[in-house]
Design brief:
The protein is of the alpha/beta class and about 130 residues long. About 25% of the residues lie in helices and about 35% in strands. Strand 5 and strand 6 form a beta hairpin.
């Protein structure tokens, strides 16, 4: 079983949005991932990520337009690159569309971006490739 590790929200003011969630839910920040385009706060074992709109291009996703486009992306964790690669194959076989083949992110994670059969953004991530 692969556990949900992160839910991401994209925002023009991702810092203010992240501070709202931090303050309302008393969430500790994962300061190791803080950057000019990202803040992450832990909710138990799952992180809520807040990304600047620039992250859309980095991930190959469509930018939100007046209620349309990608507004969230589920992220599932894998322990190895091989497991992630196998999951990409399985996901495509079950109707997912590959948005961005596995790549190494600027923060060193191995990641693939897909859309589930309904078109929702889905990320597969290996934080320790």
């Amino acid at each position: 079983m692969n556990l949900l590790m992160q839910v991401s929200l994209f925002s023009a003011d991702f810092v203010a949005l992240s501070e709202f969630y931090r303050d309302v839910f008393d969430l500790p920040e994962n300061v190791g991932l803080r950057s000019d385009v990202f803040r992450g706060y832990m909710s138990g074992e799952c992180m809520i990520g807040f990304s600047a709109l620039a992250a859309y291009g980095m991930l190959g996703l469509d930018e939100r337009k007046a209620g349309e486009g990608d507004q969230t992306a589920l992220t599932f964790r894998f322990d190895t690159r091989a497991e992630l690669d196998a999951a990409v194959v399985t996901a495509e076989a079950r109707g997912a569309a590959l948005v961005k083949p596995p790549f190494t992110t600027y923060y060193g994670w191995y990641m693939a971006v897909l859309r589930d059969p309904d078109g929702n953004a889905l990320r597969l991530a290996c934080p320790t490739p």
